[in-house]
Amino acid sequence: MAINAQARSRLLELLTEPPSGPDGHDDPVVDLLGGADQAGPPTGLAQRLMRTTAVPMIYERYWRPALGRIAKGPFGPSMDGELSMTMDLLRLRPGHTVLDVACGTGRFTRAFGRAVAPGGLAIGLDGARQMLAKAVAAESQPDTVAYLRADAVSLPFPPASVDALCCFAALHMFADPDAALESFAATITPGGRLALLTSARRGWQPARLAETALGAASGQRMFDRGEITAKLRALGFSEITEKYAGVTQIVAATR
Asked: Boundaries of each Methyltransferase type domain copy (predicted)?
C-alpha cells in the first residue's frame, strides 16, 4: 500500500540532513543509509536475523509473539497488551509527532498513526530494509505514517522535535545503548514521553549467570533491573515507571 506523500514530505522536512542526491519520491521509505547493510557495528546473531528475508515475513504474527512470550514468561503482556500499554504510556494526541525506533514491520507505527490523526505524524524508523519493506506493504496504512531507514543510535532529527518516542525490543541489541538513550533524550520535546521495552536481568545469581551467558551468545545486552531507570533519571527524565516480566522490562518516562 502506498505511503501518503504528505506524510513523507513532513518527514523529509524534519530531518537534520535530508537524503543527498536525487530523493526517490517513488520509494515509500526515506533511506539515509544507502548501500550500507546497517548503521553501526554488528552486535551478534539476534541483530543479523532482523536483516534476513525470512524473519520479517513471520516477525509480526509468529516470531515476536513467540520469543516475547518466552522472554516475558506466562504472566507478561501479550503483543496486544504491549501495544495497549504503550498507547497509554505515550499519551498520544491528535497532532503529535511520534517516533517508533526499531519499528520492525510497523505494527506499533500504524497504531500510533491512527492515534495522532488528524494532523499528526508517526515515523517508523528501522535499519533493516527487509523489515521496512514488510512495513510499507501492510494494509490499512494510516495517511499519517512515514517510514525511515536510518541510524537508531544517532537519530537524524533536530533537538526537541518529537512529542513521543517508542523503542520496543531493540535497545539491548544496539552497539551503544547509552548513546541511543542520549539521542532519544535530545530528540523528545520537554514534557514529551518515552516508552521502552528491553532486557532485565534478574538478581538471583544462578538465573543472572544463565541470562548473561544467553545474552552474550546472541549478541544482546542484559541490563540490570533499575539500570535503565537510573540512566533516564541522569538524562533529566521524570515520572519514571518500570514494569518487569521475566527477563524484560517496560520503562516509561517524561522528558
From this structure: 99-195
The pLDDT tens digits for 184-193 are 999 999 999 9
For residues 248 and 72, the answer to whether their CB atoms sit within 8 Å is yes
More confident residue, 75 or 26: 75
Alpha-carbon span 122 to 134, nearest angstrom = 17
- Assess contact for 147 and 123: CB atoms under 8 A: yes
Between 26 and 163, the more confident residue is 163
Mean pLDDT of 205-225: 72
- The residue written with cell numbers 505514517 in the block is 145
Dmax over Cα atoms in the chain, in whole Å?
55
Query: Cell 513467540 appears where?
Result: 66
What own/partner pairs with CB < 8 Å and gap ≥ 24 does 214-221 have?
A: 215/172, 217/44, 217/45, 218/44, 218/45, 218/46, 219/42, 219/43, 219/44, 219/45, 219/46, 219/47, 219/48, 219/173, 220/43, 220/44, 220/46, 220/172, 220/173, 221/172, 221/173, 221/174, 221/177
What gap in Å lies between CA 248 and CA 85, rounded to an integer?
14
**Distance, CA of 156 to chain centre:** 14
Name the domain count of the chain. Answer: 1
Structural domain boundaries, residue 169? 5-15+22-254
Report the first-to-last Cα separation within the chain, whole angstroms.
35
For residue 130, give the CATH number of its domain.
3.40.50.150
What is the pLDDT at residue 64?
A: 77
